[in-house]
Amino acid sequence: PGLYHSSTKPRDAGTGVLKATLIIQKWYRGYKARLRARQQYALTIFRSIEYADEQSQMQLSSFFSYMLENYADMCKEDTELVHRFLASQQCIKDRQKYVEFISVPDSYSGPRLQFPLSAVDIDYLLKGFMHQEILHARFVIEMLFETKKVLQQMPNFTHIETSSFEDITICGDLHGNLNDLLVIFYKNGLPSESNSYVFNGDFVDRGKNSMEVLMLLFANFLVYPNKVHLNRGNHEDFMMNLRKTKLNSSSYLQVYGRRILEMLEEVYTWLPIGTIIDNEILVVHGGISESIDLDLLHRIERHKVKSVLIPPMEVNRDHTFELDESKSSVSTTISKKSTSEPLLKYEWEQVIDILWSDPKSKNGCYPNTCRGGGCYFGPDITTKILSKYQLKMLIRSHECKPEGYEICHDGKVVTIFSASNYYEEGSNRGAYIQMCSGMPPRFFQYQTTWATHLKPLRQRVNTMEINAFRMLKERIISRKTDLTHAFQLQDHKKSGKLSLGQWAFCMESVLGLNLPWRTLSLRLVNKDKDGNVDYMSSFQDIHIKKPVEEVQSTVIETLYRYRYDLEILFNIIDSDHSGLISREEFRDTWKLFSSHYNVPVDDYQVDELVNTMDLNKDGSIDFNEFLKAFYVVHKYDTLKQVCITNLIFV
Fold it and tell me: 492 an active-site residue?
């Protein structure tokens, strides 16, 4: 018995350790899977709201079309608004007019550039931006003029060839993330005669260093014009930049007004719309459609696509717009001069498809309802178009991917996205591609962080979830009146409760966000023991702050919901970029906007809001302050403040 006991005990102990190890492994795998699922839901919320915002912005094109088609009537009612809108589309030709009054003071310690640029100037820029120095506006404007001059000589599609001993690097969206660009240059080397790059659009917006990213890309392009290739993205669009982006609110524009933004408008239009590598690989920002015509796209005058929000207009050829800069007025006159032909709508739509489209697993080609522009194209469309033009692969960007890249359509479509931490820190990796002749693409991933170590997955997921649901609840509260009405129509018994299916149907039909509402309901509403939803709990712990208590909640919701669209309009009106607009401009623009969108808001209540926001009664409204007045108050904000207060007193 003693021998038996001593010989079996280690075997039993080993078995127990093995079982414990398997149990721990199984628990850990389940734990990590649940974290990944939560991360995926958060990313789905971020992406859905991002696309809904783009869709809303795209819909402004109908407003601008309406405004220009009816310009004759508007000239009588609001000459200033129409003048500023049209003036923003004028070509900038007088270089000296833009720089002659901007001198560089001796006290300026940032990078000083000498034109034509050399590799030494690139080094100055890199060192300056790494030390958070700001490039003086005179150098910025000079850079933009030089870049435009070179871009004007380029074709719509850049044709390049690789070899077995020379790679080409393809980068996707950077969105103003300077650190990501610096990491790419550190890992992959600076552009040079032996190190080629293609930057595939969306250099700006969202990140905090849009101008710095642009300046570095343009400087490298000017020094190595045959080795650095820049494709236009859907955010290289001056109307897209008019929202509260880091580019639009940068210190450059605060100091020097709209001069730089106006020059950017011109540079954007001259960016090539694609690159073709080895006559086999098509590189465009968004994608393709079933009607895409590459031969036509090679021939069109790309600089006439000013903005996705300004489609070609059918204008009476006997009339032109005359801009009187001294009086800021617009008049309609008979013109004897022939004007340049505008793009046909079909040509304009082709460019929009290139910039805005997304691949889907479903066959066919159908409207991109999420973004509001471009199309969804399936594997069959990819095969058809690549075969038609004897191509083998499409490389595109435009979509954030958790791993920085994604391969679909049987390996024929590659998405590359180079902005890491796009939604939140830890939300996604960035990536770039290296390609050489006859070899498959090689992917390189990275993730930038200010911290010494990346936070654990649990902390990153928690942060993502909190901010994703915060954004979602803000979207919900902005449609409270509409949602309540939809809930009550379904609540035939007037019980204040709906089935989960009914609640999800109302949320989707009103918000149009295409989200897994049944799963998300666990974080959004209260349910009884039978699983029925207390639908008014959808609005719990959150409300929109009211600048004027007497104003109806529907007015507040309407202004909050359209705040980004209104911001674009006010940035057009605010020609000197002062952040101030007159009370009259506010009223007139709101009337124009509300009449087109059929927004039922009482003018008297809008006037009350205007009076309240004009704090010093000088007749001008600080629109930035106006926007800040409508913010969403979360329960979590209150709790956080209480915790901070308690800590202070403890």
Answer: no
